[in-house]
Amino acid sequence: MKTVDFVKYQPPRLRHHAFPGLYLPFKDIRADKIVYPRVFETLDWSEVFANGKAPGYLDIGPGMGKLMIETALNESSVNVLGLEIRRNAVKWVNKVIEGENIPNAKSIWYNVVNGLQFIKDKSIKKIFYLFPDPWIKKRHNKRRAFTKFLLDEITRILRDDGKLYLMTDVKEVEEYQAAVIKEHGRLHAHIIEDGLWDLPFITNHEIFCLKKKIPYIKMICSKNR
Q1: What was the pLDDT predicted at 20?
Q2: Which helix (H) or strand (E) holds 11?
Q3: Continuous H helices in 120-224
Q4: pTM surpassing 0.85?
Q5: What is the rounded CA–CA span in Å between residue 14 and residue 223?
Q6: Is 200 exposed, middle or buried (0-12, 13-18, 19+ CB in 10 A)?
Q7: Domain 35-223 indexed as CATH 3.40.50.150
Q8: What is the C-alpha separation between 124 and 56, in angstroms, rounded?
Q9: CA-wise closest residue to 59 among 167, 213, 169, 170
Q10: Which of 9-13, 73-77, 168-172 has the lowest average pLDDT?
């Protein structure tokens, strides 16, 4: 499998979170001085990917982009789109993509709580939602992107044979996600052991968990039929 020597690229200094206000939907933003990600209604894929085609995989919150980049590098026929809320991470990931000449990967500064209306119905085969910001404190729960609204969008764009991949090292987040999925009712989720996890590449945070021996939970969700 092809890999990338990320050491060649000086990583930016990133905070774990972006400015808290950025995690809210644009319609709920009251401060007029927040630099907020653009809310896209449509996207011209010819301006995103060299082949002008729509994405086949979606990475929600790719962070420093290891899984997204190496997936695209090894599956050159599939366009991989990342939607990330931390602007510096987006800039760095796209720098790596350009430096490695990977035409089928792109990270965009965007907040998914504003919807995925620019992605066509039943067009995505794999969606990655890995190690999201946990927002543990109750007063911050409103900033969690994993909601019934997001699941409505995910089930709309996911192919009938598509999969949603979830991973977290926070038990409370796993329980919260499982509860949202159950209430939503249009997906079924299974906790997956490492041997059955079918993604060949791992995220930067998963590497961190492995080094620190921090347990984490993997789930794969499919559409109900």
Answers
A1: 75
A2: none
A3: 148-157, 171-184, 204-212
A4: yes
A5: 35
A6: exposed
A7: yes
A8: 5
A9: 167
A10: 9-13
Sheet with 105-109, edge to edge strand ranges: 105-109, 80-84, 57-60, 124-130, 158-168, 217-223, 187-191
Contact between residue 93 and residue 107 where contact means Cβ atoms under 8 Å apart: yes
* Domains of the chain, residue spans: 35-223
Active site residue 28: no
Residue 173, number of CB atoms within 10 A of its CB: 21
User: 64, 139 in Cβ contact below 8 A?
Assistant: no
Q: Which is the catalytic residue, given 59, 133, 161, 194?
A: 133
User: Under 8 Å CB-to-CB from 167, ≥6 apart: which residues?
Assistant: 129, 130, 131, 203, 206, 216, 217, 218, 219
Q: Which two tokens stand for residue 208?
A: 């961190």
Per-residue pLDDT tens over the stretch 21-75? 788 899 888 766 688 999 999 999 999 999 999 999 999 999 999 999 999 999 9
Q: Given the structure tokens 């020597």, which residue do they identify?
A: 5
CB 99 within 8 A of CB 26: no
Residues 6+ apart with CB under 8 A from 74: 1, 2, 200, 201
Residues 6+ apart with CB under 8 A from 93: 62, 64, 65, 68, 69, 82, 84, 107
